[in-house]
Amino acid sequence: MQNKKIYLLNPWIHDFSAYDFWVKPLGLLTLAAFLRRAGFKVQVIDCLDPGLAVRVPGVPSGSRKRQDCGCGKFPSEEIPKPEALRPIRKRYRRYGLSPNVLREILATTDRPDLVLVGSMMTYWYPGVVEAIGEVRTAWPGVPVFLGGNYATLCPEHARTFSGADVVIAGDGEFALPAALGDLFGARVDFDFDGSDLDSYPYPALDLMGRLDAVPILTSRGCPYRCSYCASKLLNRGFRMRDPMRVVDEIEHWGRTRGVRNFAFYDDALLVNSTDRAAPMLEEIVRRGLEANFHCPNGLHLREMTPRLAKLLFGAGFRTIRFGFETASAARQAATGGKVTTEELRQSVAYLQEAGYGQADIGVYLLCGLPGQESPEIEAGIDLVRRLGAKPILAEYSPIPGTPLWDEALRHARYDIGKEPLFHNNSLLPCLRSDISTADFQALKSRTRLALQEKGFH
Predict the structure, then answer these.
(1) Which residues have CB under 8 Å from 60's CB, separation 6+?
(2) Could you tell me if 94 and 79 are in contact, meaning their C-beta atoms sit under 8 angstroms apart?
(3) Going by fewer Cβ within 10 Å, which terminus of the chain is more open, N or C?
(4) CA dist list (Å): 334 to 1, 101, 247, 322, 400
(5) Which CATH code of 3.40.50.720, 3.30.70.670, 3.20.20.70, 3.40.50.300 fits the domain covering 213-453?
(6) Interval 176-190: pLDDT, tens
(7) How far is 224 from 230, CA to CA, in rounded Å?
(8) 10 Å Cβ neighbour count for 415?
(9) What is the pLDDT of residue 453?
(10) Which residues 6+ apart lie within 8 Å of 445 measured at CB?
(11) 8 A C-beta contact, residue 315 and residue 281
(12) Backbone Cα Rg of the chain
């Protein structure tokens, strides 16, 4: 396969809003590393990477000011809404590079033998369709494979509407070698042990245009089965890395690329913390790694202890978010039982004792769940406020195949079964009919008031 060129393309985001919370196409970058190890020539084109724009001669830069912590705004431009979203009174935008920049990149790049396109949210599929269209125009006849979350959760929709030749559901490292063998007529071996994440190569982040932050995974999947979550559908069980190997990777990117900001995107970073998170944090401190760590995904509170809280603070974990979801004990049990109100209360106290300020402890509260009433959301906001943490409303997005999906179908205000655009959490697709837009804005204002009362910024 020495002469075969494979390009990996991360599409734009089409949405009402989007922000770069350390976003990197980690799945595509991992596949790029596998392909390179298997002897293919690879290149990554990330439509969300503003660093690419400044490297194209004669094309205006799409870059935006970045925060010191490595996140920031995407460049964006307003675009027409898809027909299904025309009644929605919000502006719709393309986030990422200008199409002209992508066309310039494709026009000045050698024709590949295959293009692999990734996908994230199901309701971002218009960006996938647009990106595949640009590939078709630039390189007629080049095969296009599509994978990722949209391809996995909505495979039939993707086969019908994406424009890809092949749609690959599930983890690409398992399915892709056979698909490549069929395409090229030769056996392809990624040479890895699927049960051992430490047999995987580091993601090919060296192929990115910008590297002001690095995403890290210490595990894949989650042992919990929360009814609203797609982790079980997107991963083959709960697989964990050796914590020392995780620290090796952090040290590698710091040493070779000068990276100082790392974002953990695990679904279960703190699960089994005695054997995983605690040794990792101790090793980060022991090696004296100067870095800031961020956890935009909701961490599990259940295993929080005074020692673990102190280790998080001492190791440099600055952005911490916890998944609490609801103050209703009945819904806590019905959605998976991963945390109780008492565990939240205790964990916040431990974190404060360790040195975290009130504004540092973000707590996600789900809103817009099927059948959820306004007082339940209010109770969650008030509880988090009383405990001295920061309440963050997280709008519920219905996900096909999750245990809550059938209930979402019954409560949805839109045809979520037919049109993935209606999975968009900003539409609050399952919000009760007796909760008006004004009522929901009042809930958001209640959250902001809670922050102001505590002096948050």
Answers:
(1) 53, 98
(2) yes
(3) C
(4) 51, 48, 36, 19, 18
(5) 3.20.20.70
(6) 999 999 999 999 999
(7) 11
(8) 12
(9) 53
(10) none
(11) yes
(12) 22
Task: Check residue 34 and give its pLDDT.
Answer: 98
Virtual torsion, Cα 239, 243, 244, 249, nearest 10 deg: 70
Q: Rounded to whole angstroms, how far apart are CA atoms 64 and 74?
A: 7
pLDDT score of 58 more than 50: no
Label residue 348 exposed, middle or buried (CB < 10 Å: 0-12, 13-18, 19+): buried
Residue type (1 letter), 141: G
CB-facing half-sphere around the CA of 261: CA atoms within 13 A: 20
Q: Would the pLDDT of 393 be above 90?
A: yes
Q: What is the mean pLDDT of the chain?
A: 92
Q: 210-236: buried (b, 16+ CB within 10 Å) or exposed (e) per residue? A: bbbbbbbbbbbbbebebbbbbbbebbe
CA torsion, ordered 263, 265, 270, 275, to nearest 10 deg: -90
**Domain range annotation of the chain:** 5-184, 213-453
| E strand or H helix at 392 | strand 390-395
Residues 316-370 pLDDT 10s: 999 899 999 999 999 999 999 889 999 999 999 999 999 999 889 999 999 999 9
94, 47 contact by CB (below 8 A)? no
| Cα–Cα distance measured from residue 187 to residue 179, given in angstroms and rounded to the nearest whole number | 10
How far, in Å, CA of 390 to CA of 398, rounded?
A: 25
Q: How far apart are CA 314 and CA 270, in angstroms?
A: 16
Instruction: Please name the residues in contact with 365: beta carbons below 8 A apart, sequence gap of 6 or more.
Output: 324, 325, 326, 327, 377, 380, 381, 384, 391, 392, 393, 394
As to burial, measured by CB atoms within 10 angstroms (0-12 exposed, 13-18 middle, 19+ buried), residue 208 is buried
In this structure, are residues 113 and 144 in contact, taking their beta carbons and an 8 Å threshold? Answer: no
pTM of the model: 0.93
Question: Where does 397-454 have alpha helices with state H?
Answer: 405-411, 437-453
CATH 2.60.40.10 fits 5-184, yes or no: no
By residue count, the chain amounts to 457
